[in-house]
Every structure is written in C-alpha cells, then in structure tokens.
Specification:
337 residues, five-stranded mixed beta sheet, 10 helices, 43% helix, 19% strand, binds 5'-O-[(R)-(carboxyoxy)(hydroxy)phosphoryl]adenosine, binds zinc ion
C-alpha cells in the first residue's frame, strides 16, 4: 500500500517548510517560515544563522501542522540535498527521528526532484515524457523527465544560476534581498528596451546557459552612469529601467533555450519549476510562446516548501522506494546520481 498521508520537511536553505500532503496531491498543510528578514540585512543567506533558525522553529512548526491535521502520518520525507550542510542536517535529522518514533518509512528527497514534483500540484499536471526548466537560486537546468525518476540533464548553466543573477543584480542596484521579487517590482515601472543587455549563448548548438556576463554588463552600465554623473547614485527611473532591461534579457535566455529543447526532444508537455518560476514575465512568456502545454506550480509551491518534498516522496514510494534511515545530507548531489 502506498502511504497516503506524508509529512514533508524542507530545510535546504533559508526557508523552513513543513507540509502534510494526502495522496501525493491534496495539500492539507503547507507552512513556510521564511528567514528573509533575518538574512536581508546581510544581503544574502548566512549559513550558520540559517541552520540555527531551522533548529529553533522546526519542532513548533511540526506541532503546528499536526494540530491542524491529527491523522496518523504514513511516511516522513525530508530534503537530503543539495543545499547548505547545517540546514539540511536539521531537517533530515528531525524527520528521521519522527519517522523512527512513529515507525513509518523515512524518505530522503533530492531538492531539485522536489521542485520537479511541484509541477504536479498545478491544475493540469504534466504527462511523461516532459521537459522541465528548473530555475532557482542555485540551479538553471533543462531536464528531460522520460519516466518517473528518470532524468536526463540536457543543459545547465556554465556559471551563475538565473536566481543568483537576480540576487546579485538587485544588490548592485541597491534593491533588497531576495533579488527576484524586488527586481520584478522595480521593473514594473521601467522600460525593458532602455538598455540592450546581451543574451549570452542564445545562438549555437547547445542547451547551456550563462548568466555571469549579464551580471557584469549590468555592473558596467551602472558604473558608466555613476561616472557620467560624478557620484555613486542612480535615479529611481534608472533603477527601474536597468531592472526591466536585465529581467527581459534574463528571461529571454530561458525562453529561447526552453523552446529549442522542446523542439529537439519532441516532448508534448513541459514544466517550469523553482523559485524563479514565480516570475510573472517568465510565466506569461512561457504560456504564450511554447507550442506545448506548460504546467506551472501555483505561486506557493515555486519557492522552497515542504509540500513539493512530500509529493516527490509519494511518487518515490509508489515506484519502489521503501525508505532509507541511513541517508545522510549531501551538500552537492547531482540530479539522478
Ligand atoms: O527555489 P528557491 O526558493 O531556492 C533555491 O532552491 O535556490 O529559489 C530562490 C530564488 C532566489 O534567487 C530568488 O531571487 C528567486 O528564486 N526568485 C525570483 C522570484 N521569486 C523568487 N526570481 C525572479 N522573479 C521572481 N518573482
Ligand atoms: Zn529550491
């Protein structure tokens, strides 16, 4: 029998996610405690602070979830990697201890596999085989998902991840962390054609990405304006224009490669997952320009959350996984390895 009610725990970075999901699709609880205000003052995630914060709140978060749904849990799942070692260790150890006490399977889940399964929470889930564009703070990948848990990486970034480039550019522009939402907001009042930023690697016979050149181009543009003005400030209008032009270039590169990958593989379905899948421009362009239906997770399941971990675990258990109490956290862990 496939366990029905799964507790999913996600602590790979700066969000503590705890969720209860029934039947791999029915999300009964999806609580996320974000540490954004804590890390924002440092301009990025401080690993030691992140793991301490997970430790402080994980117990009360699980109790809170259980107070909403008291039914017996059939399996416990947690992100085992990739991510910050200390943060992973908190969620993994806590989840293992719970599973051990409750005498149910413990399922270690790959963080990116969790993101992939967030697409199954869309109104219309994808059908296999499908192409996934994975876009987060740490990953930018095109993945062919041939069958459940069978992944081929068709292309990935050679340097920065797209989410990372949003975070770095936001910092250059003096916008708050995390950069994705603040750039999207600043871009609303800007002109995406104001600055012609490069679309790296957009031509050529490969499905790879590169974002470090775009970040450097933004830096040079900002410096050029500082020098012209004689001091290190930008007008709000300039910040909006640079944000909009950066966002247009960053998203354009994703859409170009995703279209190419769909064409090459001949798949009939696609998904976009990960924190950057919350980007409005990306969602609109993908919905309009791809020739195949693209399942996109509802906003709540784009950034890190426990529900996606529970959904992935449900499928793993459905496809032969019996749980693994020996799993240890893996800071780096290639998908499919
Ligand atoms: O998947 P996620 O929550 O964590 C990782 O696994 O990395 O993704 C976080 C990333 C951050 O880089 C953040 O700036 C980006 O997702 N992000 C966005 C938006 N919302 C979050 N990027 C662009 N537009 C957004 N609306
Ligand atoms: Zn993530």
């Amino acid at each position: 029998m496939i366990p029905s009610l799964i507790l999913g725990i996600e602590t790979s970075c700066d969000e503590t996610g705890v969720a209860l999901v029934r039947g791999g699709r029915d999300v009964l609880v999806n609580d996320v405690a974000s540490q954004i205000p804590i890390h924002a003052q440092y301009g990025g995630v401080v690993p030691e602070i992140a793991s301490r914060h997970h430790t402080e709140i994980i117990s009360q978060m699980v109790e809170g979830a259980r107070a909403k749904v008291a039914d017996p849990v059939d399996a416990v799942a947690a992100t085992a990697g990739p991510g910050l070692m200390g943060s992973l260790l908190v969620g993994l150890s806590f989840a293992k201890a719970l599973a051990f006490t409750w005498r149910v399977p413990f399922v270690p889940v790959h963080h990116i596999e969790g993101h992939l399964f967030s697409a199954f929470l869309a109104d219309t889930p994808p059908a296999y085989p499908y192409l996934a564009l994975v876009v987060s703070g740490g990953h930018t990948q095109l993945v062919l998902c041939a069958r459940p848990h069978d992944y081929t990486i068709l292309g990935k970034t050679r340097d920065d991840a797209v989410g990372e480039s949003f975070d770095k550019v936001a910092r250059l522009l003096g916008l708050p962390y995390p950069g994705g939402p603040s750039i999207q907001k600043a871009a609303e009042s800007g002109d995406p054609r104001a600055v012609a930023f490069p679309r790296a690697l957009s031509a050529g016979d490969h499905l790879e990405f590169s974002y470090s050149g775009l970040k450097t181009a933004v830096l040079y543009e900002i410096r050029r304006r500082w020098e012209a003005r004689g001091h290190r400030t930008l007008a709000d209008r300039e910040i909006a224009d640079i944000a909009a032009s950066f966002q247009a270039a960053a998203i354009d590169m994703l859409v170009i490669k995703m279209k190419e990958a769909v064409q090459r593989t001949g798949v009939r379905h696609a998904t976009v997952v990960g924190g950057v899948a919350a980007n409005r421009l990306l969602r609109e362009r993908v919905a309009q320009e791809l020739d195949v239906p693209v399942a996109m997770p509802p906003m709540a399941y784009c950034v890190d959350n426990g529900a996606m971990i529970a959904v992935a675990a449900h499928s793993l258990l459905e496809h032969g996984c019996t749980g693994d109490f020996t799993a240890t956290p893996r800071a780096t862990w290639p998908l499919g390895a």
